[in-house]
Design brief:
The chain is 66% helix and 6% strand. It is mainly alpha-helical. The longest helix has 32 residues.
């Protein structure tokens, strides 16, 4: 198998893992949102706004709102209205949400420990160091490609992708 196939195979395997874990209620995106709520909440007793989550993750407010609605239906978060301005709603994690996030993080840690056990500490450390660099390289190259395509197809304008927010992932 050539290196490009290794790359595509790795992406496909991660997608399958996400789908498999989603069946058990551990959708990657929801775990990331819960983790972000927890991190932002640590600095605020009032809870967090959807706009704060969107900004922290560099994703759209509608995308966050959709996930927040799902998390609320599952009982992982609750909404709190601001008494002085009813347009402002804060989001707080429930005990059920904290437990769900802990279980999701435990799964991630278990997988990382298995990788380290199977490939050894030195290769594991180098793998995660390299893995940390890859998103920036991919996004940089995609932006170069977008510029080239924009020049070639002047009527189309592709959006440049910003650097991803670093957070714990499987």
């Amino acid at each position: 198998m050539s290196p490009p196939n290794y790359f595509l195979n790795a992406i496909q395997t991660l997608r399958k893992a996400n789908i498999r874990l989603s069946v058990y209620g551990f959708a990657h995106g929801e775990i990331v949102i819960l983790d972000t709520i927890q991190k932002i909440s640590d600095s605020s007793d009032n809870g967090v706004k959807v706009t704060q989550i969107a900004k922290a993750l560099d994703i759209s407010v509608p995308a966050v709102s959709k996930s927040v609605n799902s998390l609320e239906k599952k009982g992982f978060i609750s909404r709190i209205e601001n008494n002085s301005d009813r347009r402002v709603t804060y989001i707080k994690m429930t005990e059920k949400g904290y437990e769900h996030l802990k279980q999701g993080c435990d799964i991630s840690e278990r997988i990382k420990k298995r990788i380290e056990k199977d490939i050894g500490h030195e290769r594991f450390t180098e793998f995660f160091r390299t893995l940390h660099e890859i998103p920036d390289i991919i996004l940089d190259e995609l932006n170069i490609i977008a510029d080239e395509l924009d020049k070639k197809n002047k009527h189309l304008s592709l959006i440049h992708i910003s650097e991803p927010t670093r957070h714990a992932q499987i």
